[in-house]
Amino acid sequence: MNLFYTEKSRIQPPLLNLDNQEAQHAAKVLRLREGDKVHVTDGEGWIYHCEIRSMSKNSLSAEIIETKPIAADEPHITVVLGLIKKRERLEFALEKCTELGANAFIIFRGDHSEKNNVRTDRLESAVRSAMKQSLRAWLPSVTVCGSMDEALENVPEMARIIMADETESSDNVNPSADVTGMNEMLLLIGPEGGFSERERKLLESRNSEKISLGSHRLRAETAAIVFTDRARGGNVEPQKR
Prior knowledge:
By secondary structure, the chain is of the alpha/beta class. It has 2 domains: about 5-70, CATH 2.40.240.20; about 75-235, Alpha/beta knot, CATH 3.40.1280. Helices cover about 30% and strands about 30% of the residues. It is built from 6 helices and 12 strands. The strands form 2 sheets. It has a 6-stranded mixed sheet. It has a 6-stranded parallel sheet with strand order 9-8-7-11-10-12. Strand 7 (about 75-80), helix 2 (about 85-100) and strand 8 (about 105-110) form a beta-alpha-beta unit. Helix 2 (about 85-100) runs parallel beside helix 3 and helix 2 (about 85-100) packs parallel to helix 6 (about 220-235).
């Protein structure tokens, strides 16, 4: 099964439309034709089973045959990740975390982050591709912030903030811990240079919890992937402050 994506505004029952890259992929890569069946998501929890009615070089129109609602993964997991210098590694982290079930991303420039530009459109493209690849119907949002302070402003006050801290012993992790009852979880991974003392104090003021991801120091993108996997599987045991 191949899953396509189209914005909600391009869905006008009984028809929906794909354009540009999505339409080109259907025609040139998959070689679909009129009458073929396709599955499309709007990234807002719906999958549409459709039949192609017309195609052109950069557009595709399909008739909606069946509409299926897909529940969002729970708990709601937001991955907050310090900026990674190499663009490919940052995109890789978002791609894999999306496949593992992250609901949203906040990328922030930490006090110890190296200065470089971030192309939000590329990050969104990586997340969108991963959503389709993993056959998910919810498109994670991507927010880029200039500091951790700004990142935390985008987080609900009642969200559970869990901080991956390499200074914590792996003995503080209980692999049988159950965190599935939490409605909102924030998984926080620092930049390549680690958290500054100012950032640590800021996290303390928000009653954050700390865990270790193991006895070895992980790259930021690896930590994000491991953290998301453990959280979605219910294996994160934070060490309360």
